[in-house]
Protein: LacI family DNA-binding transcriptional regulator
Organism: Streptomyces indiaensis
Amino acid sequence: MPQPPLRSAARYGTRPTMKDVAARAGVGLKTVSRVVNGEPGVTPETERRVQEAIDALGFRRNDSARVLRKGRTASIGLVLEDLADPFYGPLSRSVEEVARAHGALLINGSSAEDPEREQELVLALCARRVDGLVVIPAGDDHRYLEPELKAGVATVFVDRPAGHIDADVVLSDNFGGARDGVAHLIAHGHRRIGFIGDMPRIHTAAERLRGYRAAMEDAGIPVADSWMSLGVTGPERVRRAAEEMLSGTDPVTAIFAGNNRVTVTVIRVLAEQTRPVALVGFDDIELADLLQPGVTVVAQDAADIGRTAAERLFRQLDGTLVTPERIELPTRLITRGSGEIPPAD
Amino acid sequence: MPQPPLRSAARYGTRPTMKDVAARAGVGLKTVSRVVNGEPGVTPETERRVQEAIDALGFRRNDSARVLRKGRTASIGLVLEDLADPFYGPLSRSVEEVARAHGALLINGSSAEDPEREQELVLALCARRVDGLVVIPAGDDHRYLEPELKAGVATVFVDRPAGHIDADVVLSDNFGGARDGVAHLIAHGHRRIGFIGDMPRIHTAAERLRGYRAAMEDAGIPVADSWMSLGVTGPERVRRAAEEMLSGTDPVTAIFAGNNRVTVTVIRVLAEQTRPVALVGFDDIELADLLQPGVTVVAQDAADIGRTAAERLFRQLDGTLVTPERIELPTRLITRGSGEIPPAD
DNA sequence: CCCGAGTCTGACAACGTTGTCCAGGCTCTA
DNA sequence: TAGAGCCTGGACAACGTTGTCAGACTCGGG
């Protein structure tokens, strides 16, 4: 008869349960439960015996069974685009802190901007019966969440509103921020301003584009199609887009970058240019102040967004909150040099 | 009789169970289970009826109950220092990708470098019966994990070895990386080289310090105490430490920065200096190539570390892996300018 | 000495799912 | 047409915990 490897044997070795602890301590099952949960009504002597048995056996309460009985899991889910993105790290951390303050754990998943994967993740989290969900949506139809909402899963959307359902959403003033950033360039004398952004099906990208257009219109500047590059992702494509709008017959004198990744690539391209080109980016980036010139940005506070969303989530769980709302957080223009370069006409 | 708020009412509203689905579809409980899990032995007609009932009721399987029955949770835990740190974001993401490939979800927690909080988090994860744990330890005694290991919780430590228990560990060659980085500075003519690092109770910090000392000793350079600044955390204290070793009677001509956060602060300090000072940092930082001068670093590949650890974890779960091992990944010296500045004596 | 109140303890059901096992109806063959 | 074998469906127990409830024991007062 073949022996399974040792580790594997241990793996399937069963863990001690309250029943085992009770047997060893010579008490009833419920008494163990009482000790484990710090409930009153246990003599110090009994408690000592139980505690001893717990330590000796290395018992740990099985929270799955507990959840099954109690209904609450004390965990919340966070679905975002990519945890490796420097914007989401701090956001995730601040959500975790709020969760921790409420005794909850955080499960996160990256959707990679894929609507199908978003749904898959969200439903997996629901199957685990998370108490609440913070979702940075990739898709634009969230009707699949209706049964969950009805069942009372607290839900807050972040960065982009939910599609076809009525839910809380916390986001930055993408429109206003972009408008201010572009207006800043206009105020410094630019008229031919380029815009490089993500796919307009992404809400933030669309809003920032709208802000760009509004600023240009406010200043009475007609926008040439060749100044706008939409839906470019990946460094190579962004690079090509930037190079195209910098050359040609009607080259731009300034660029507004639609997100942090675009900004980084554009910085690289501009470093290779001979003539100075102004730049304002959406999202702050680390070390932006140490570059030559410093990078002017429209900053949003990721940690603040995360905290606001998480707090709202737990207020839903309290029952304090009833009506879904849209909360828009302000952005901040940080001038560091690159946005104040005059046009080199 | 007071009505609870609508949302709250929904919250405590019970979710449909397989029993409800079975009743609605007019079949037995187990038949529903079969359909949900794609098991064979159900007529297409019956399956259709069941599926209809599932959709109508918005049923989602309760994984807590499933786990209770099956033993496996298909989730793994990751405990790290701070998700907001740009080193851990990519690491976490790569662990998540491997988990996803194995159909598992990832729960993460930040220990904030606090041993007690680490233990608290790890035990909470074990109570949830995660199948495996990836731990970047804050503490140095992990005997509390013994019952878990015995029960078969797969465990891999990352970045620093476990204390007092025998477990897999995946880490960078901190000693060798630091030694090479410092030797690089020596090769460019420096003799008075400063070291700024984290508390030596942190394994990585101690190893990097050891690498610094080894490089200096190899070159026959005696090290002055005033050149070493250990256990400094927080930008202000790092700043003060850097300023001190740059002034005084025996100022350093080069600095080796022990981690990414120290590097960033030192860059700021150096930017304010009149004389040029060489710098090599441990960990790569974004945009390091665009600064003037570019920042020379000893880079470790966070994503690779995470992937290696996670893959090992799942091989433990397979039963493929039996004996704990120590896996050391190489670091890479990336020269960009700051490390090649000659001493300004 | 007895009774009531209060304290401590344990038996039992229930949470929602899956594994086991058996029943009944069908098809196929002799 | 009977018997064997297969296919489908369902009853039931079990997973480990917690809530309910009742029993046993202690103590103090009448």
